[in-house]
Amino acid sequence: MSRANPNEERAPSIVGAGIDRLDARLKVSGKAEYAAEVPVANVAHAVIVTSAIARGRITRIEISEAQAAPGVLVVLTHENAPKLPGATRRDGPVDALPQLLQSDEVSYNAQPIAVAVADSLEHARAAAELVRAEYAETAPVVEFAAARDSLYVPKTAGPQAQPITSRGDVDGGLRAASARVSLTYTTPSHHHNPMEPHASIAVWQGNDRVTIYDATQGIFGVRKKIASVFGLPLENVRVISRYVGGGFGCKGAHRSHTALCALAARVTGRPVKLVLTRQQMFSLVGHRPRTEQRLALGADASGKLLAIRHEVVSDTSRFDEFSEPSALQTRMLYACDNVHTAHRQLRVDLPTPTFTRAPGEASGTFALESALDELAHELRMDPLALRVKNYASRDMGQDKPWSSKSLLSCYERAAQQFGWDKRENAPRATRRGRYWIGSGMATATYPAHQWPASAVARLRPDGSILVQAGSQDIGTGTYTIMTQIAAEALGVPLERVRFELGDTSFPETPVSGGSQTAASTGSAVRRAALDLRQLMIATAVGDPRSPLHGLAPGAVDIRDGELVSRAASSGAASSGTGSNGPRGASDSFVELLRRSGKPELAARVDNPEKPERKQYSTHSFGAQFVEVAVDDLTREVRVTRVVSAFGAGKILNAKTARSQLIGGIVWGIGFALHEHTAWDPRTGRAVTRDLADYHVPVHADVPDIDVIMVPEEDAFVNDLGAKGVGEIGITGINAAIANAVFNATGQRIRDLPITPDKLL
Ligand code: MOS
Fold first, then answer.
1. C-alpha torsion sign, points 254, 257, 258, 259
2. Radius of gyration of the chain (CA)
3. Which of 190, 727, 728 to mutate for ligand 1's pocket (most ligand atoms within 8 Å of CB)?
4. For 405, which of 84, 583, 624, 738 is 20 to 30 Å away at the CA?
5. Which of 639, 621, 184 is nearest to 367 (CA)?
6. For residue 247, which atom of ligand 1 is closest to its CA?
7. Contacts with 640 (C-beta within 8 Å, 6 or more apart), sequence order
8. What is the three-state SS of 318-346?
9. What is the pLDDT of residue 587?
10. Distance 421 CA to ligand 1 centre (A)
């Protein structure tokens, strides 16, 4: 558990404590209601029928048999589905174009081409099997090699960054270098595979109002998209998402299935439930795009970097845009005068990719941090010493100071705990029985975002505090940390606060993505709680019937869920203000509200981005150290130890933060060793379409993971000082593993995942 911050406003600190998730019991006892489990009367079931080709047109679609099957309400296709006013509208840079049965065109394999709706799931599935389609097919382009002539520069790298940047003279720097590497790294597609499949239930009230229960990372994004697709005012769409069984990005942007569910409900005049199958999640909800990254590094004999060139090629669909910004960290991670970064994209006949845990940084740090390891080898230098040598004391890409940075402490503490000084720098030097042993390290980094968010805090008649903010808890602990933040800001015990989320009727907040929910929604919750505190104190001192009447607001505090005069609470003499207020006076929440005659006291805030942020570059940093054992016989790689340290600002809950970081590292092990969506080059179909074929790390693949949270204060990043921990864990870890494999075997694998065949 992290130590409490001595500068907290109130002690003992609730924020930071590693308390258990408040929803843990509900979840493990099956009482937490996920989207597909919400009981809705008279609900019908929809099943999506998907295309058998990747590119072409539907020439004939036969539904008569399906329509006549038992229990079937309707079978929708492009021939009979209502035209939707906003079906092809793109609402902003992170929006994805849905496929809503509006045309005969097929743009990727396993695209929706029909929806069967029936009175039971079994009937809907049976009917879906009976839909027959014929196509005019064009051969899909799937492989990078076949798509080269489509290469283009996207308007932005990721949602908003410049695609191409340069500073200094990279060619000159490379020429002057005494050691250089120039290499290409490739990473495959990934699918997110949250445990809970995507699911929606749509309930229309008449023809122009709809409530949607959805498994989503962004209820307000879904509301906006559904309103846009159906041409409805925003306030006519309500989206509810109380519990979400994982997201990792694939529940971040709206995709086709939620609107298809709403469409089926509108056509049938019944509530409709639509749950994707695991297989459908390999085509309908996006994936991490493939990357091919060329890295050139040059350094002088001391290891000082003289040039970095990082050129990324990733893929997107032929019909839509998604940009994987894998070179962003290269602009700022190391001190170097001469840096060129570029993002380019290819068009292929695959589904449009989407955000996948640390989009950009997860694949980008693999290339950059592998290349640094290769440069260290060229220089005969310790890879950690090379990083320290090139430590960036400011963001040279943005030309700004850091809001805070603890990377040197991360290196030091993780290295020490790992025992890095005992490592043999020469590869293939350590053998333990059948295994070659090696260790490697890498730097981790992820931006610390804050976006505008709103929240409301309410004092209820029973003296409890109810705090509400739209938001989502995708398994990260949002319910828990928001409750902690509100309780501490108000000065009440945790048990007195209830935090509600997951409803667009609550104040608006951002998507649960980009590792910024704690920073954004957390800052709004804190501000609302502080405002309510002020309101309660003002109400008490202004109320002639309050024992605190007449005290200056500053002379009143809230402690242990009571309003008390500070003189009383500190045991000190009267502050000299509020002469009417008797010393030692207190007032209860229940009495305060009862006397006010109001049903509640409420403080609602719209909290903007902290203005001071703009002058700083805001990032979390970390250091990942890994030991591997490579079986000399089978060439299987096992990760045997991980020690990582992170500086991520204020840690709001030591337990949930640690779980987030470990979760990222586990996916990093999958990234390095297991995960790979194989696209069939002939059909554009994901061949790995279930969790038997798509390998994820399981318990036996994951060693003990030591996570060190380096204490870090940040006065600028947001009012909480929290930088977010959702994504940084998956950055750098894949490179640390590849570097450890090199150290163990002398074999450098630049194409992930590192499967035994590549080490033979
Ligand atoms: Mo995360 S990939 O920003 O949901």
1. positive
2. 28
3. 727
4. 738
5. 184
6. 4
7. 437, 627, 628, 629, 703
8. CCCCCCCCCCHHHHCCECCCCEEEEEEEE
9. 97
10. 36
CA of 285 relative to ligand 1 center, distance in Å: 13
Nearest atom in ligand 1 to the alpha carbon of residue 726 is 1
Q: Ligand 1: list residues with CB < 6 Å.
A: 217, 247-249, 252, 355-357, 359, 513-514
Can you give the pLDDT at residue 581?
45
pLDDT for residue 568: 62
Token reading at 168? 């200094």
Q: List strand residue ranges (DSSP E) for 614-732, in order.
A: 619-631, 637-647, 705-709
Phi, psi of 593 (to 5 degrees): -70, -40
Cα 514 to middle of ligand 1, angstroms: 5
Q: Whose CA is nearest to atom 4 of ligand 1?
A: 249
Residue 455: strand, helix, or coil: strand
Residue pair 438/427 in contact (Cβ under 8 Å)? The answer is yes
pLDDT tens track for 276-321: 999 999 999 999 999 999 999 999 999 999 999 999 999 999 999 9
Indicate the SS3 state at residue 521. helix
Question: Residue 297 phi/psi, 5° resolution?
Answer: -125, 145
DSSP code string of 63-116? -HHHHTSTTEEEEEETTTSPP-TTTT---STT------S-SSEE-STT-EEEEE
| Top mutation candidate among 193, 355, 446, 449 for ligand 1, by most atoms within 8 Å of CB | 355
Choice from 190, 192, 288, 357 to test ligand 1 binding pocket (greatest atom count within 8 A of CB): 357
User: Which residues are catalytically annotated?
Assistant: 727
- Which ligand 1 atom lies nearest to the CA of residue 359? 2
Look up tokens 């002469």; give the residue.
579
Q: Which amino acid belongs to residue 395?
A: D
Furthest C-alpha separation in the chain: 88
What is the reported pLDDT for 242? 98
The tokens for 469 are 């903010």
- Give the pLDDT band (50/70/90) at residue 569: low
Model confidence pLDDT, tens digit, residues 333-383: 999 999 999 999 999 999 999 999 999 999 999 999 999 999 999 999 999
CA distances from residue 520 to 482, 617, 723 in whole angstroms, order as listed: 11, 17, 10
pTM over cut 0.90: yes
